[in-house]
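4.2 Preliminary Data

To establish feasibility before requesting continued support, the project team ran the inverse folding procedure on a target of 233 residues. The structure was first converted into the token representation described in Section 3, and no sequence information of any kind was made available to the design step. The complete token record follows.
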């Protein structure tokens, strides 16, 4: 069985100093070796799923160890308490997004956690709420559209946050909900429309970003439909 120390040694050997510098420029504060995501995914595949090892890797605080922990953890064994602990220690958008996409979004209580986290003050915990919704909106095809329609008012209410990574997360979640179906796209556009000229800079930015992409999506779909009708005429 591979140990934390062996993994850290391998990561250190595979690191690239120039990548560490780029991470720091992006605002990351965790210790890092500079290993790229493809190499981390390859290592995770070699290790396989291991909940206990994931729990041991996370407290190291090392960027690569934390991404790896999110890749090898077993979602069915993850608890809500673990999600809270890990989210509260997020210190960059990358760790937040990787953890949510690789593991949190695959837990049974992802959307419940997302709703609760929209009220949290911490920047990356709140961003995690939106990332979870965005990921589930894309990948959870078994969920009823109404599940996501019901989330829209909560997401909009939480979008009046001028912190860059929060408002970008809010836009991402709303856009992905709108892309699930024509009905959801119409619904999201209708709900963000009143905020397009809001005095609140953050919610105005989110509303305009969402509206711009979903309107573009509508135009693209109409054009495709017209092309298909023309081809079959």
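Position-by-position output of the design step:
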């Amino acid at each position: 069985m591979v140990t934390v120390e062996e993994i850290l040694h391998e990561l250190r050997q595979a690191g690239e100093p120039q990548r560490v510098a780029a991470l720091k420029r992006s605002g990351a504060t965790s210790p890092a070796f500079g290993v790229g995501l493809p190499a981390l995914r390859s290592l995770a595949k070699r290790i396989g799923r291991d909940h206990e090892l994931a729990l041991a890797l996370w407290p190291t605080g090392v960027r690569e160890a934390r991404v790896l922990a999110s890749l090898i953890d077993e979602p069915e064994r993850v608890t809500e308490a673990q999600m809270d602990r890990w989210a509260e220690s997020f210190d960059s958008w990358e760790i937040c997004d990787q953890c949510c996409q690789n593991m949190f979004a695959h837990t049974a209580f992802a959307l419940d956690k997302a709703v609760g986290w929209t009220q949290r003050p911490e920047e990356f915990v709140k961003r995690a709420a939106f990332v979870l919704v965005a990921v589930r909106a894309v990948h959870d095809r078994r969920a009823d559209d109404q599940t996501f329609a019901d989330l829209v008012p909560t997401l909009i209410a939480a979008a009046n946050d001028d912190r860059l990574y929060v408002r970008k997360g809010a836009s991402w979640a709303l856009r992905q909900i709108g892309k699930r179906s024509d009905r959801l796209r119409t619904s999201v556009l209708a709900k963000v429309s009143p905020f397009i000229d809001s005095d609140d800079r953050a919610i105005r930015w989110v509303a305009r970003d969402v509206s711009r992409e979903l309107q573009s999506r509508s135009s693209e779909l109409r054009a495709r439909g017209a092309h298909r009708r023309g081809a079959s005429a």
